[in-house]
């Protein structure tokens, strides 16, 4: 009979753990400027100790103040090193702390503080329009079509059928629902029949934009063919759309010319005219909102030196409400733990804002310092660059650099790029020197852009031309780079003389 023994083994190990607040700061660092601004705005809305700063975001005078505050934050803490990160010792407890203010020391009463704060409040006066009232109303496809129907002399029954079809269109402007399924949707007495819906369909298809209410791509293109002035070209286009749509999609001009009995030059001209038609007419109307990329930093050449500046437009204009903070410090009691937590959160929010943009500027400066040739000469002068090199230069961990360069953008004379764009692995040339993948993509882009339309370059030919320049690149790598640059395959790029 065996016996089982138990024993306790005590071991002491040293591990590195991130506090919840530091983990939150790391998540904020990884966010895009838009997401980060939304988080700060949410905190601003529920934290009484935070307030929005007033002033013009575009004034140049605000930049030195912003840079000074970021430098102070950089000297104060580093998110990449938990040992030097802000600790809970800097927080404010509900019972009191070093920021306590005696009500009688400064000679300012609570009433004076409150009146100072309330005196700066601004509100809308009677009859004054708000920003929402001044916003333009967007015209959707449905509204645009209904407005045209209202101008037609239609009977109520015909109008109801047409409105039913309009409300059944999708975002592309297509009618994907079969007419048979819309008979009950019309809700007419007596019930509508297919003949009435077909008449209503033709009526809706006659509205602008041309091609709306089509049931497939071919019908959408056919509805737009009257825009072609030349009768001969319009007839060939109709025949191609009705009978040879797959050949049109595959750009098989030679095959189309044989089937139609026309010259390749004529068929190519007709195909080009068809491609200028709109296969998604519904996209012409809809939301006018365009999500523009706002750069986090801007690089400019000043007196022969490339300088990196933080874009003030992406920095949330938020500050601590000193009046509320002083009032709370004067009257704090152990029962005000929740308000103490809000004050602590407000100070941490401001510190996270400063730390985030300080780190972004440091990383951007390190990248610009190593990619001056790109700024001077373009993509083909890009040098190989890794995260480790930037991390060592800035004094942070590689993961921090990865987070900082994710969804962060820099404006350069060559365009706006994501910070990750400047990183690429080294590819050894035949001479033994290193070349970046970005530079090779730039060469491929120039080769395809300058190629002859009648004899485009295949991936194999591009590979051979790169080899003659001393760049040994596999054909599959060339294919991957070409697809990244959004160039079609050689067959689709070929044009007939």
Descriptive overview:
By secondary structure, the protein is of the alpha+beta class. The chain folds into 4 domains: 199 residues, no CATH class; 65 residues, no CATH class; 68 residues; 68 residues, Orthogonal Bundle (Arc Repressor Mutant, subunit A). The strands form 3 sheets. It has a 4-stranded mixed β-sheet, sandwiched between helices. Strands 1-4 form a two-stranded antiparallel sheet. A two-stranded antiparallel ribbon has the order 7-8. A hairpin with a 5-residue loop joins β7 and β8. It is extended. It starts with 19 loop residues before the first helix and ends with a helix. 24% of the residues are buried.
**Radius of gyration, in angstroms, nearest whole number:** 33 Å
Strand content: 5-15%
**Multimeric state:** single chain
The backbone outline, from C-alpha atoms, is: extended
Order of helices and strands: HHEHHHHHHHHHHEEEHHHHHEEEEHHHH
**Continuous helix count:** 21
Number of separate strands: 8
What structural class is derived from the secondary structure elements? alpha+beta
Strand order of the largest sheet: 3-2-5-6
Distance between the termini: 95 Å
Number of domains: 4
